[in-house]
Amino acid sequence: MLRLFKRHIALSIFILTLFLLYFSFSSIHEDSDMEYLYKVPYPVLFRNLSSKDSIASDKIAILIVLSEGVKRDYYKIPIDSVECYAKAHGYQFILTDDKGYGCDYLKEKYFRRHCVVTKILPKYEAVLHIDADIGVVNPNRKLQELLDENIDITFYDRHFSPEIALGSYLAKNTSYAMEIIKDFSEYERKLPNSFHGTDNGALHIFLAEKLFPYNLNELELCRRAWRNSQNVADQFAYTLCIRTLFGANTDFGKIRILRKGTGHVRDDWLTSGIWSPYHDFMLHGWKMDQLGKTPSRPLKAEPMKQTVWYNPFIGTFDMDQCGFGNTTWHHDPRLIGTREDVEHCLRKHEMKIAIKKMKYLGRFGDDIIEDQDSEYLYGVPYPIMRNSNNESWITSENIAIVIVLSESVKRDYYEIAIDSVECYAKAHGYQFILTHDNVWGCDYLKDKFFRRHCVISKILPKYEAVLHLDADIGVVNQKRKLQEYMDPQFDIIFHDRHFSPEIGMASYIVRNTQYGLDLITEFSNYEKKLPEGSFHGTDNGAIHMFLAEKLFPDNSIELELCRRAWKNSQNVADQFAYTSCIRTLFGANMDFGKVRILRKGTGYVRDDWLTGGIWSPDRDFMLHGLKTDHLKKVPNGPLRVSPMSQTSWYSPFEGDFDIKRCVLGNTTWNHNSRLIGTREDVEYGLRKHEMKIAVKKVKYMSRLYNFVVYSSTYLQYSLRMLRIH
């Protein structure tokens, strides 16, 4: 009886726990732990209007394109506000419909408006395209604040979804902008037979194809999600898939995408119509048939229904009074709030969307599979990342190759790998340093993986550059040079791991600059920030959060969510979910200021087991995983390029290295010809594995929701109680 009672109590605790977890899911945006994030101000992106590249106002047009039959009265207040604003600043105001511009061949009204933009843009130096339901609320802002001499088209993020908004964009009259908008207007023919989101859905895959042509696997997976989309949630899942390619960056060549909270337009309903002169410029969602009466009760900045808005003005616009220089407008003071209140509300909603993004990914994580349609992707060669014209900018004797062993670890444990590296260094005149981590004053660090980076920081000042290598990395192609991978623009170069979403820490190239030295020194001390009680991945897990904090300090909300995933990680799959979370901030980009991360298939190191030990002199340089106790005899039968056990490898060499014969200029090595394959075969195998990882990455991401919404403490406790009783 007592046992039955205990089981009843345990079951009750478990049910109560589930209820608490459900409550956590529905109210995460109220988490007091997040409150500090909501108070972080958005960066102000005002530009110096005296800049020499500024465009005169009369050379800028504000364009509103209506569909045939739509009257101005449908959007009277927003259109009046835009016209009055244009007159106040001397911009050209154009209100037109989509007929008469030769765009009738397009069936979709949403694509026709972009076609119209291409017809009007050549007459001006820049055009701001806006939807008719966007109104100007702050007449003191100027469009020139958005212009930049390096950017031809400026978009902005939608605040309440993962989308890039198409309600407005600013385009300069350049051949690049004209080509982009023209090509996009004709993208209508590529719309899938699905819930595709018309032009707003199409913009994402269109831009991704233009900006990330080498990310074929990810593009194909996102394209499948678009084809299979059946509703709004599926559509958001697809757009999020694409946005993982863009990452946290705002600039992509000549295209800029302003982040949430920094764009020139946002949705009015997000703050119940309350706006701030110190934050806002234009508001979206002003349809006349949705105009509500401003309540007499006190209003606060919080989301309301998307189909209601309040007029921020007192009275109507008198166009005769809208003259040049007149920016004295009559606003309803009840709808004017402080920057702090407005941005607190926007940050809070941004957190809500950041969490929803993880739920969206989970919608198609289990449905994406490899299929025969992917076969064409496997034959696409990887781009070659060699900088052969830079080979002499740092001379070989000023570059050190450093291998750091833990105390008591002997060279014999990695004999073939280390011999190959030393022989390679001697052949090209690099300095070869094999050392232990207990002789450099780094003993204060407990983790051996962090100690090795501390050692690098001690050696780096003596050379112009250092290549850090794990001891199980061997050189297989002795004819390649380190300078091929170096670039004067970058102080540190990492590489992507091919079999996971991780940045590899087994090797990196760092230059002796203040930035490079500071980065390595600071990272070696990051050991103290490892989360207790989690499967954190030591230095390999830490590098992701460390770099993200350095490179994306303004993305505080995404950083906090990924940090929670790291804290709650319990196994390898959880760890990969966390690293996938961080990699969404990096996106498909490889260059981040003075940091470069070489993409899969383009780095100087890859894992040997991925191709069954077969390598190609036309693409490979170094191979990872060459531990002596994992060495196997090369099989007698035919070998083919396919993954094998991660704990096995075959020696790519015939016989042992004679270090005495490893002298400057001697790059004649004896390779086992049976392990030499063609570039095509090797890259086919790597591409195929890359697709497998791209699919897994989506599945890893779908795990994140549970991590970031709540700690698993309650659930673990209740399960423990059930086991006890």
UniProtKB/TrEMBL annotation:
Transmembrane segments: none annotated. Gene3D superfamilies: Spore Coat Polysaccharide Biosynthesis Protein SpsA, Chain A. It comes from the Eukaryota. Pfam families: DUF273. PANTHER family: NUCLEOTID_TRANS DOMAIN-CONTAINING PROTEIN-RELATED, PROTEIN CBG18972. This is Nucleotide-diphospho-sugar transferase domain-containing protein.
